[in-house]
Amino acid sequence: MNTTENIRLQDTSKRRQLKDKLVLGMVVFFSLVTVSPIILIIGELVRKGYRQISLDFLIKNTPDTYSAMTAIANGERIPGGIANGIVGTLIMVVLAAAIAIPVGIIIGIYLYENPGKRLANFTRSLSDVMQGVPSIVLGLISYLWVVKHVTNGYSALAGSVSLSIMMLPMIVRSTEETLKMIPNSLKEAALALGTPYHKVILRVLIPTGFSGLFTGILLGISRVLGETAPLMLTALGSSMINLDITKPTSAVPLLIWEFYNDPNMIDLIWSSSLMLMILVLVLNMISKQIAKKTK
Amino acid sequence: MRKLLTLVLAVALLSSCSNSSKKTTEGKAVDLTAAGATFPLPFYNMVFKQYGEETGSTVTYGGIGSGGGIRSLKDQVVDFGATDGYLNDEQLTEMPGEVLHIPTCMGAVVIAFNIPGVDSLKLSNDLLEKIFMGDITKWDDIQITSNNEGVTLPAMDITVVHRSDGSGTTQIFADFMTKISEKWASQVGVGKSLNWPVGMGAKGNPGVAGTISQTAGSIGYIGSEFAFAQKISMAKVQNSAGNYVLPTIETISAAAQGEIPADTRIMLTNSSDPASYPISGFTWLIFYKDQAYNNRSEDQAKQTVDLLKWMVSEKAQNEAPKVHYAPLPAAAVEKAKAILSTVTYNGNPL
Q1: Buried b (16+ CB within 10 A) or exposed e, B149-188
Q2: Which residue stretches of chain A have pLDDT < 70?
Q3: What contacts A85, CB < 8 A, 6 or more positions away?
Q4: CB A238 to CB B60 under 8 A?
Q5: Alpha carbons A9 and B242: distance in angstroms, whole number
Q6: If you measure CA to CA, which chain A residue comes closest to B62?
Q7: Given its phi and psi angles, is residue B264 left (phi above 0), alpha (psi -120 to 50 degrees) or beta?
Q8: What is the rounded distance in angstroms from the CA atom of residue A135 to the CA atom of residue A156?
Q9: I need a surface site. Which of A34, A206, B145, B196 has the fewest CB within 10 A?
Q10: Which residues of A fall within a CB distance of 8 Å from B112?
Q11: How many C-beta atoms lie closer than 10 Å to residue B333's C-beta?
Q12: How many CA atoms lie within 13 A of B318 on its CB side?
């Protein structure tokens, strides 16, 4: 009897181990399926785009179609690069962040401090709705507000406004969620010591939740980095580096669209996409690292 | 936090600096902005850059589509717009001021095909209608082979490839088809996007070209600037004189040899010139006849007209063929110059 029971036990444990392995295999398989698109995308971009990447690509303006054509005919690398797009993207994203970060953090603090109030609930649901607004609609709004009435023409400022509206709800929500995770006792202790309210926010809440806020901001930035549709209606594009925010300005995603339309520049599509992808990936990784460290 | 605040301050300072510098440069080199059609984008980017190098002013062109170009001019947020289709009378009355057109260069729609072992194809008007209406479905159909003696056509299904996005290329093609085929005119008509009787859609010239090159037995239409640059096999198309003409820079320019109205608003498809490629057309720049609008300075108005004049000058026109656009014939250049001489600022000639 003893031995038969042993055998039965061994049998079930073997079966369990088998099941265990099967489930593990499935989990690994599906994880691989999930990540394979991103690996395939990057692989394809690297394969098609690496030839164009060089120092020139980062520091020179877009070439004209004729020089690109002659270079292709001679089997050379296409001269020039995407410096106008990189500079434009940086200006617009920094400006958008400068608009969206202070406003977003202040709204986030308000939502955290007054969770039950009707205005807070209204604001919260509005910002959730805003997250779902298609980016082209934000471009149209910025066209009506800024292009038509403020700068009287296409401008980097108009592009920044549309991008900042896009970033805003993300920053608001991440600020609120981060502050919620800070132990209430910390705030109470500061208030008990007689610290004024504004100092509690500036010196206790924001520094404690800094990493969370920072992650939210970086994710917001990496989301707007690749936006094309709102910029076509607002920033328009430019073949030169432009530092005047009231003038049309280029951006990397806009350049990719221009290259797509020019039969001689097709090779540049891949390298520009690769650059954009790398930029977004690096920002994402930095934000993940910061989030991990502070947990 | 403090760092963040300094960053915000720095950005604000920077932007205010650039604002003030703009005011001081006004009156010398003026920066111009234009937007519109994507078809001439490579040509415009190139010649605007040359113009900038000669005069020191920057011309920015955004390829946001013909519709976007018309919209921008209507909203007065650009110095001039660009479009592949001229504004009809109704559109003209909707504009806040009188709008003028000048043609800048010419392009065509080529019929591209991918039939293994075949590099030359002659298509009569009748064949074009039957292929694109889906009445002929095999390449070795007797109607095609009898029109192409000496070419061995395989027993392969015909796959029609067309644009899935709205496009001026589609409009020119449909305009030509409407002129040559009653069946097309009554069942499909003209438009930027159509209700296609047969075939599969692909996005943009690159999409159609890519689909054709990957599909044996396919046929479709592509913008000439794209087809020439990519060295795609093109069919000879029958023009209204009955000749079979291959699209080239010369045969496209020939389409504008005939009568052109004074305002240059004309579709050049099915031109009567015996040497012309029949699916050709102008692309236009559009601008206000009176340049004093929306607080524009006289310098800016002058600069705009100078640039427009330069676009139809010999120098700029000579650049067009280098990047596969057909230059304007002399008659069209004269018409454009006459139009430009009527431009005013506050009623005074410029």
Answers
A1: eeeebeeeebbbbbbbeebbbbbbbbbbbbbbbeebeeeb
A2: 1-4, 294-295
A3: A62, A250, A251, A252, A254, A255, A272
A4: yes
A5: 91
A6: A236
A7: left
A8: 16
A9: A34
A10: none
A11: 18
A12: 4
What is the tens place of the pLDDT at every residue in B245-268?
999 999 999 999 888 999 999 999
The CATH number of domain B108-280, selected from 1.10.10.10, 2.30.110.10, 1.10.15.40, 3.40.190.10: 3.40.190.10
SS3 B83: strand
pTM given for the model: 0.84
CATH number of A83-252: 1.10.3720.10
Asked if residues B105 and B220 have their Cβ atoms less than 8 Å apart, the reply is: no
Among B42, B75, B295, beta carbon nearest to A262: B42
Least CB–CB distance from A66: residue in B7, B11, B46: B46
d(CA B72, CA A259): 22
The dihedral over CA atoms of B99, A242, B84, B247, expressed in degrees to the nearest 10, equals 140
- ipTM tops the 0.85 cut: no
Sign, CA dihedral A159-A162-A168-A169, equals negative
Token pair for residue A272?
């520009």
* Helix, coil or strand: residue A195: coil
CATH homologous superfamily of B32-106+281-349: Periplasmic binding protein-like II (3.40.190.10)
Indicate which of A92, A262, A264, A266 best probes the interface with B, i.e. most B CBs within 10 Å of its own CB: A262
Q: What single-letter amino acid sits at A92?
A: M
DSSP state of B329: P
Structure tokens at A98: 């400068």
What the block records as the tokens of B339 is 């139009």
Instruction: Please give the pLDDT value at position A219.
Output: 87
Cβ neighbours, 10 Å, residue A122? 10
> pLDDT tens digits, residue range A93-132?
999 999 999 999 999 999 999 988 999 999 999 999 999 9
B314, B336 in Cβ contact below 8 A? Answer: no
Contact B33 A247 (CB under 8 A): yes
Contact between A263 and B225 under an 8 Å Cβ cutoff? The reply is yes
Question: Which of B12, B14, B75 is the closest to A148 by Cβ?
Answer: B75
Distance CA B63, CA B70 (A): 12
Q: Which residue has the tokens 């339309």?
A: A261
Residue B19's alpha-carbon distances to A247, B9, B12, in angstroms, are: 10, 15, 11
CA-angle at A174, arms to A173 and A180, nearest 5°? 90
CA–CA min distance A18, chain B (Å): 47
Tokens 């095999």, residue? B138
